[in-house]
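Work Package 4 report. The design task specified in the project plan requires that, given a folded chain encoded as structure tokens, an amino acid be chosen for each position. We show below one input record used in the internal validation round.
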């Protein structure tokens, strides 16, 4: 019975690790949304060039501060939608384009705003960007916790079944 209680206690520790992982991932996602994602969305709906530039600058500053400028966010599936360099360059190019026409005619400004909106609305934010560059650490964390919890609970169940025969 002591062994079963120990396994259940250890399983609960692993379960807490899973809960902590999910909580940290949620907090990181919220931080990214608040400090970058929302500014990108605000830039896409801005009514004028200056407002769009201010909002994009905030997103770019966050991306640069967090080193979200190059690399890939996926561990196993390296495909274009996981490319941070492309994502960052799209943001940066949009800002530069707006900066070029900020003193241009109304038609040029309107055309640039429309182009920027199209680019940013179609752009996919790489999945896993919120925990970059620690993607491998988070993967190992959750795999160890899931594996540990599963083994502990299965062993406790097996011991419990063996005791009642």
């Amino acid at each position: 019975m002591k062994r079963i209680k120990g396994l259940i206690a250890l399983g609960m520790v692993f379960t807490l690790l899973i809960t902590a992982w999910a909580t940290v991932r949620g907090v990181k996602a919220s931080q990214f949304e608040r400090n970058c994602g929302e500014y990108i969305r605000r830039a896409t709906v801005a009514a004028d060039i200056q407002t769009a530039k201010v909002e994009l600058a905030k997103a770019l500053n966050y991306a640069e501060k967090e080193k979200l400028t190059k690399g890939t966010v996926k561990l196993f599936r390296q495909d274009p939608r996981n490319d941070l360099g492309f994502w960052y360059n799209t943001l940066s190019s949009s800002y530069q384009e707006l900066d070029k026409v900020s003193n241009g005619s109304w038609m040029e400004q309107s055309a640039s705003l429309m182009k920027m909106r199209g680019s940013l609305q179609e752009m996919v934010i790489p999945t896993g960007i919120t925990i970059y560059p620690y993607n491998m650490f988070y993967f190992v964390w959750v795999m160890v916790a899931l594996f540990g919890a599963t083994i502990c609970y299965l062993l406790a169940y097996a011991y419990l079944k063996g005791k009642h025969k």
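The mean pLDDT is 93. Validation will be extended to a larger panel in the next phase.
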